[in-house]
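Saturday, quiet lab. Running sequence design on the C-alpha coordinates for the scaffold JK sent over.
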Protein backbone atom coordinates (compact mmCIF):
# COMPACT_ATOMS: atom_id res chain seq x y z
CA UNK A 1 0.00 0.00 0.00
CA UNK A 2 2.86 2.41 0.82
CA UNK A 3 6.60 2.58 0.19
CA UNK A 4 9.13 3.15 2.96
CA UNK A 5 9.64 6.72 1.74
CA UNK A 6 5.90 7.41 1.87
CA UNK A 7 5.71 6.18 5.46
CA UNK A 8 8.62 8.47 6.29
CA UNK A 9 6.60 11.41 4.96
CA UNK A 10 3.66 10.40 7.18
CA UNK A 11 5.93 10.69 10.23
CA UNK A 12 7.09 14.22 9.50
CA UNK A 13 6.05 17.16 11.65
CA UNK A 14 4.74 15.00 14.50
CA UNK A 15 2.74 16.72 17.26
CA UNK A 16 3.16 16.22 21.02
CA UNK A 17 6.92 15.64 20.85
CA UNK A 18 8.46 17.43 23.86
CA UNK A 19 11.83 17.77 22.13
CA UNK A 20 10.31 19.40 19.05
CA UNK A 21 8.20 21.65 21.26
CA UNK A 22 11.39 22.65 23.10
CA UNK A 23 13.14 23.54 19.84
CA UNK A 24 10.20 25.64 18.67
CA UNK A 25 10.05 27.51 21.99
CA UNK A 26 13.73 28.40 21.58
CA UNK A 27 12.99 29.64 18.05
CA UNK A 28 10.07 31.76 19.26
CA UNK A 29 12.35 33.27 21.91
CA UNK A 30 14.82 34.19 19.15
CA UNK A 31 12.00 35.88 17.23
CA UNK A 32 11.14 38.03 20.25
CA UNK A 33 14.79 38.93 20.70
CA UNK A 34 15.09 39.93 17.04
CA UNK A 35 12.80 42.90 17.74
CA UNK A 36 15.50 44.55 19.89
CA UNK A 37 18.47 45.72 17.83
CA UNK A 38 20.69 46.03 20.91
CA UNK A 39 20.23 42.32 21.63
CA UNK A 40 20.97 41.36 18.02
CA UNK A 41 24.15 43.45 18.18
CA UNK A 42 25.08 41.81 21.48
CA UNK A 43 24.88 38.34 19.91
CA UNK A 44 26.99 39.56 17.00
CA UNK A 45 29.71 41.03 19.22
CA UNK A 46 29.91 38.45 22.02
CA UNK A 47 30.70 34.75 22.12
CA UNK A 48 28.12 32.36 23.65
CA UNK A 49 30.42 31.69 26.63
CA UNK A 50 30.60 35.43 27.37
CA UNK A 51 26.81 35.71 27.18
CA UNK A 52 26.46 32.71 29.50
CA UNK A 53 28.66 34.42 32.08
CA UNK A 54 26.58 37.59 31.76
CA UNK A 55 23.44 35.51 32.33
CA UNK A 56 24.88 34.11 35.56
CA UNK A 57 25.55 37.65 36.81
CA UNK A 58 22.08 38.76 35.64
CA UNK A 59 23.60 41.48 33.46
CA UNK A 60 21.95 40.63 30.14
CA UNK A 61 19.24 42.90 28.67
CA UNK A 62 15.95 42.21 30.53
CA UNK A 63 14.19 40.59 27.56
CA UNK A 64 17.03 38.12 27.04
CA UNK A 65 17.67 37.54 30.75
CA UNK A 66 14.02 36.79 31.52
CA UNK A 67 13.35 34.94 28.26
CA UNK A 68 16.24 32.55 28.85
CA UNK A 69 15.23 32.11 32.51
CA UNK A 70 11.69 31.19 31.44
CA UNK A 71 13.03 28.68 28.92
CA UNK A 72 15.33 27.11 31.50
CA UNK A 73 12.47 26.81 33.98
CA UNK A 74 10.93 24.34 31.52
CA UNK A 75 13.98 22.74 29.94
CA UNK A 76 16.93 23.52 32.20
CA UNK A 77 17.22 19.85 33.17
CA UNK A 78 18.25 18.96 29.62
CA UNK A 79 21.69 19.12 28.11
CA UNK A 80 24.11 17.71 25.58
CA UNK A 81 24.82 14.01 26.29
CA UNK A 82 22.21 14.39 29.02
CA UNK A 83 22.23 10.68 29.96
CA UNK A 84 25.69 11.24 31.48
CA UNK A 85 25.18 12.39 35.08
CA UNK A 86 28.64 13.92 35.06
CA UNK A 87 27.89 16.52 32.39
CA UNK A 88 26.27 19.88 33.18
CA UNK A 89 22.63 20.66 32.51
CA UNK A 90 21.61 23.77 30.57
CA UNK A 91 20.48 25.36 33.83
CA UNK A 92 24.12 25.16 34.98
CA UNK A 93 25.69 26.25 31.70
CA UNK A 94 23.44 27.82 29.01
CA UNK A 95 26.33 28.39 26.57
CA UNK A 96 24.90 25.96 24.02
CA UNK A 97 21.46 27.58 24.08
CA UNK A 98 22.93 31.03 23.58
CA UNK A 99 24.90 29.70 20.62
CA UNK A 100 21.68 28.33 19.14
CA UNK A 101 19.94 31.68 19.66
CA UNK A 102 22.81 33.30 17.76
CA UNK A 103 22.30 30.82 14.91
CA UNK A 104 18.57 31.52 14.84
CA UNK A 105 19.12 35.29 14.80
CA UNK A 106 21.36 34.82 11.75
CA UNK A 107 18.55 33.05 9.89
CA UNK A 108 16.94 35.62 7.59
CA UNK A 109 15.14 33.41 5.06
CA UNK A 110 11.43 33.27 6.06
CA UNK A 111 10.96 29.96 4.23
CA UNK A 112 13.78 28.41 6.27
CA UNK A 113 12.26 29.45 9.61
CA UNK A 114 11.89 26.40 11.89
CA UNK A 115 8.19 26.95 12.58
CA UNK A 116 7.52 27.32 8.85
CA UNK A 117 9.49 24.14 8.11
CA UNK A 118 7.65 22.25 10.83
CA UNK A 119 4.25 23.39 9.56
CA UNK A 120 5.24 22.49 6.00
CA UNK A 121 6.31 19.01 7.13
CA UNK A 122 3.02 18.52 8.98
CA UNK A 123 1.04 19.56 5.90
CA UNK A 124 3.04 17.21 3.68
CA UNK A 125 2.40 14.41 6.16
CA UNK A 126 -1.35 15.02 6.24
CA UNK A 127 -1.46 15.17 2.43
CA UNK A 128 0.33 11.81 2.29
CA UNK A 129 -2.15 10.33 4.80
CA UNK A 130 -5.03 11.35 2.55
CA UNK A 131 -3.23 9.93 -0.50
CA UNK A 132 -2.78 6.57 1.20
CA UNK A 133 -6.40 6.51 2.39
CA UNK A 134 -7.58 7.09 -1.19
CA UNK A 135 -5.24 4.35 -2.38
CA UNK A 136 -6.62 1.95 0.22
CA UNK A 137 -10.19 2.78 -0.82
CA UNK A 138 -9.57 0.90 -4.07
CA UNK A 139 -9.41 -2.24 -1.93
CA UNK A 140 -12.64 -1.56 -0.09
CA UNK A 141 -14.29 0.84 2.35
CA UNK A 142 -13.21 -1.09 5.45
CA UNK A 143 -9.56 -1.10 4.42
CA UNK A 144 -9.62 2.65 3.83
CA UNK A 145 -11.13 3.22 7.29
CA UNK A 146 -8.53 1.02 8.96
CA UNK A 147 -5.75 2.72 7.01
CA UNK A 148 -6.94 6.16 8.05
CA UNK A 149 -7.28 5.11 11.69
CA UNK A 150 -3.80 3.58 11.82
CA UNK A 151 -2.08 6.47 10.05
CA UNK A 152 -3.74 9.06 12.26
CA UNK A 153 -2.77 7.02 15.34
CA UNK A 154 0.83 6.95 14.09
CA UNK A 155 0.84 10.73 13.84
CA UNK A 156 -0.93 11.30 17.14
CA UNK A 157 1.16 8.89 19.22
CA UNK A 158 4.65 8.65 17.69
CA UNK A 159 5.78 11.96 19.15
CA UNK A 160 4.90 10.76 22.64
CA UNK A 161 7.78 8.26 22.54
CA UNK A 162 10.02 11.12 23.71
CA UNK A 163 7.98 11.72 26.89
CA UNK A 164 9.51 8.89 29.00
CA UNK A 165 13.01 10.08 28.06
CA UNK A 166 12.05 13.67 28.93
CA UNK A 167 10.80 12.61 32.37
CA UNK A 168 13.77 10.30 32.99
CA UNK A 169 16.22 13.12 32.28
CA UNK A 170 14.26 15.30 34.71
CA UNK A 171 14.83 12.67 37.42
CA UNK A 172 18.52 12.47 36.50
CA UNK A 173 18.87 16.23 36.86
CA UNK A 174 17.50 15.91 40.39
CA UNK A 175 19.97 13.13 41.17
CA UNK A 176 22.80 15.30 39.83
CA UNK A 177 21.81 18.17 42.13
CA UNK A 178 21.92 15.88 45.17
CA UNK A 179 25.29 14.42 44.15
CA UNK A 180 26.75 17.89 43.62
CA UNK A 181 25.60 18.87 47.11
CA UNK A 182 27.54 15.89 48.50
CA UNK A 183 30.48 16.84 46.29
CA UNK A 184 30.47 20.37 47.70
CA UNK A 185 30.61 18.97 51.23
CA UNK A 186 33.53 16.70 50.31
CA UNK A 187 35.35 19.55 48.57
CA UNK A 188 34.84 21.77 51.61
CA UNK A 189 36.37 19.06 53.81
CA UNK A 190 39.25 18.63 51.30
CA UNK A 191 38.48 15.05 50.38
CA UNK A 192 37.77 16.20 46.82
CA UNK A 193 39.26 19.16 44.96
CA UNK A 194 35.93 20.24 43.42
CA UNK A 195 32.28 19.30 43.77
CA UNK A 196 32.21 17.92 40.20
CA UNK A 197 34.82 15.32 41.22
CA UNK A 198 31.98 13.35 42.82
CA UNK A 199 31.29 11.93 39.35
CA UNK A 200 34.74 10.33 39.21
CA UNK A 201 34.22 8.08 42.23
CA UNK A 202 31.86 5.17 42.84
CA UNK A 203 29.00 5.06 45.33
CA UNK A 204 31.11 2.89 47.65
CA UNK A 205 34.00 5.34 47.41
CA UNK A 206 31.60 8.21 48.13
CA UNK A 207 30.66 6.56 51.42
CA UNK A 208 34.37 6.10 52.17
CA UNK A 209 35.02 9.77 51.42
CA UNK A 210 32.18 10.80 53.73
CA UNK A 211 33.81 8.63 56.39
CA UNK A 212 37.07 10.58 56.02
CA UNK A 213 38.97 9.00 53.09
CA UNK A 214 40.89 11.46 50.86
CA UNK A 215 39.93 10.78 47.22
CA UNK A 216 41.83 13.62 45.53
CA UNK A 217 44.73 11.54 44.19
CA UNK A 218 42.36 8.89 42.86
CA UNK A 219 40.24 11.51 41.10
CA UNK A 220 43.30 13.15 39.52
CA UNK A 221 44.31 9.78 38.08
CA UNK A 222 40.81 9.12 36.71
CA UNK A 223 40.48 12.63 35.30
CA UNK A 224 43.75 12.20 33.42
CA UNK A 225 42.47 8.93 31.94
CA UNK A 226 39.17 10.61 31.07
CA UNK A 227 40.95 13.46 29.25
CA UNK A 228 43.01 10.96 27.25
CA UNK A 229 39.88 9.07 26.21
CA UNK A 230 38.20 12.30 25.10
CA UNK A 231 40.96 12.65 22.52
CA UNK A 232 39.96 9.46 20.72
CA UNK A 233 38.61 10.20 17.25
CA UNK A 234 37.27 6.68 16.77
CA UNK A 235 35.58 4.40 19.29
CA UNK A 236 34.71 0.87 18.06
CA UNK A 237 31.06 -0.02 18.46
CA UNK A 238 31.90 -3.73 18.28
CA UNK A 239 35.22 -5.39 19.06
CA UNK A 240 35.95 -9.11 19.05
CA UNK A 241 38.03 -10.84 21.71
CA UNK A 242 41.04 -10.94 19.36
CA UNK A 243 40.95 -7.15 18.94
CA UNK A 244 39.39 -7.24 15.47
CA UNK A 245 36.88 -4.52 14.64
CA UNK A 246 34.32 -6.11 12.25
CA UNK A 247 32.96 -2.76 11.10
CA UNK A 248 36.33 -1.60 9.78
CA UNK A 249 36.90 -4.91 7.98
CA UNK A 250 33.47 -4.75 6.37
CA UNK A 251 33.94 -1.12 5.37
CA UNK A 252 37.24 -1.90 3.65
CA UNK A 253 35.63 -4.76 1.76
CA UNK A 254 32.84 -2.45 0.59
CA UNK A 255 35.29 0.23 -0.47
CA UNK A 256 33.73 2.92 1.69
CA UNK A 257 36.85 5.06 1.55
CA UNK A 258 37.37 5.14 -2.21
CA UNK A 259 35.89 6.76 -5.32
CA UNK A 260 34.60 9.80 -3.40
CA UNK A 261 31.55 7.92 -2.14
CA UNK A 262 30.65 6.98 1.43
CA UNK A 263 27.93 4.48 2.25
CA UNK A 264 25.67 4.13 5.25
CA UNK A 265 22.10 3.32 6.21
CA UNK A 266 19.27 5.29 4.56
CA UNK A 267 17.55 7.19 7.38
CA UNK A 268 15.45 9.98 5.87
CA UNK A 269 14.49 10.16 2.20
CA UNK A 270 15.56 12.95 -0.11
CA UNK A 271 18.63 14.34 -1.83
CA UNK A 272 20.44 17.52 -0.87
CA UNK A 273 23.74 19.13 -1.83
CA UNK A 274 25.56 21.70 0.26
CA UNK A 275 28.57 22.54 2.36
CA UNK A 276 29.40 20.20 5.21
CA UNK A 277 29.74 21.36 8.79
CA UNK A 278 31.61 18.78 10.89
CA UNK A 279 30.78 19.07 14.59
CA UNK A 280 32.06 16.89 17.41
CA UNK A 281 30.27 18.88 20.11
CA UNK A 282 27.22 21.13 19.64
CA UNK A 283 28.13 23.46 22.52
CA UNK A 284 28.92 26.87 21.08
CA UNK A 285 28.66 25.49 17.54
CA UNK A 286 27.52 27.59 14.60
CA UNK A 287 25.62 25.94 11.78
CA UNK A 288 24.82 28.25 8.89
CA UNK A 289 21.40 27.83 7.23
CA UNK A 290 21.61 25.24 4.45
CA UNK A 291 24.74 23.51 5.72
CA UNK A 292 24.79 19.72 6.10
CA UNK A 293 25.43 18.60 9.66
CA UNK A 294 28.10 15.88 9.99
CA UNK A 295 28.38 14.45 13.50
CA UNK A 296 29.53 11.31 15.30
CA UNK A 297 26.03 10.85 16.75
CA UNK A 298 23.27 13.01 18.22
CA UNK A 299 20.94 13.16 21.18
CA UNK A 300 18.11 15.61 22.05
CA UNK A 301 20.71 18.21 22.97
CA UNK A 302 21.61 18.48 19.29
CA UNK A 303 18.09 18.91 17.90
CA UNK A 304 17.97 22.74 17.76
CA UNK A 305 20.69 22.46 15.10
CA UNK A 306 18.40 20.36 12.90
CA UNK A 307 16.18 23.34 12.17
CA UNK A 308 18.97 25.11 10.26
CA UNK A 309 20.55 21.98 8.74
CA UNK A 310 19.66 20.95 5.20
CA UNK A 311 20.85 17.38 5.71
CA UNK A 312 22.44 15.01 8.22
CA UNK A 313 25.34 12.55 8.15
CA UNK A 314 26.09 10.52 11.28
CA UNK A 315 29.05 8.22 11.78
CA UNK A 316 27.14 6.03 14.24
CA UNK A 317 23.53 4.98 14.64
CA UNK A 318 20.87 3.18 12.66
CA UNK A 319 17.47 4.01 11.13
CA UNK A 320 15.87 4.06 14.60
CA UNK A 321 18.58 6.18 16.28
CA UNK A 322 17.75 9.64 17.59
CA UNK A 323 19.24 11.56 14.68
CA UNK A 324 17.48 9.42 12.07
CA UNK A 325 14.09 9.80 13.75
CA UNK A 326 14.41 13.57 14.14
CA UNK A 327 15.63 13.96 10.55
CA UNK A 328 12.49 12.18 9.31
CA UNK A 329 10.28 14.33 11.53
CA UNK A 330 11.90 17.51 10.20
CA UNK A 331 11.96 16.26 6.62
CA UNK A 332 15.71 16.57 5.98
CA UNK A 333 17.69 13.91 4.07
CA UNK A 334 19.87 11.79 6.33
CA UNK A 335 22.33 8.92 6.12
CA UNK A 336 23.54 7.28 9.34
CA UNK A 337 26.05 4.60 10.32
CA UNK A 338 28.61 6.07 7.90
CA UNK A 339 31.93 4.60 9.05
CA UNK A 340 34.77 7.06 8.49
CA UNK A 341 32.50 10.06 7.90
CA UNK A 342 34.48 12.30 10.26
CA UNK A 343 37.73 11.18 8.66
CA UNK A 344 36.74 11.77 5.05
CA UNK A 345 34.46 14.82 5.29
CA UNK A 346 35.77 18.26 6.24
CA UNK A 347 33.95 21.48 7.11
CA UNK A 348 33.25 23.55 4.00
CA UNK A 349 33.50 20.58 1.65
CA UNK A 350 30.71 20.27 -0.91
CA UNK A 351 28.83 16.99 -0.48
CA UNK A 352 25.60 15.40 -1.69
CA UNK A 353 23.48 13.35 0.71
CA UNK A 354 21.10 10.78 -0.78
CA UNK A 355 18.93 9.74 2.14
CA UNK A 356 16.95 7.28 0.04
CA UNK A 357 19.94 5.18 -1.05
CA UNK A 358 22.27 5.79 1.91
CA UNK A 359 25.02 7.37 -0.17
CA UNK A 360 27.17 10.48 0.37
CA UNK A 361 29.03 11.81 -2.65
CA UNK A 362 32.12 13.93 -1.97
CA UNK A 363 33.04 16.73 -4.35
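Result came back. Writing it out in full:
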Amino acid sequence: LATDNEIQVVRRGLPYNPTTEMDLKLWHLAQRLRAESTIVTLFHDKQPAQLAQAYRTESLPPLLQQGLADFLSLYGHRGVAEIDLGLPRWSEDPTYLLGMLANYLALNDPDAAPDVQFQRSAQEAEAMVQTLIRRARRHGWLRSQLTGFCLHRIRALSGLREVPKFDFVLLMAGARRHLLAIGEELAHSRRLEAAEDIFFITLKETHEALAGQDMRALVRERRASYERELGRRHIPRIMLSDGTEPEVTLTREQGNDTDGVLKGAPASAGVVSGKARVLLDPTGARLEPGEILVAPSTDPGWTPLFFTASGLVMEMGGPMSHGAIVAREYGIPAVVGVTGALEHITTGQQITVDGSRGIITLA
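Notes for JK: DSSP finds 14 helices and eight strands in the chain. The two ends are 37 Å apart (CA to CA). Ask whether to fix the surface positions before the next round.
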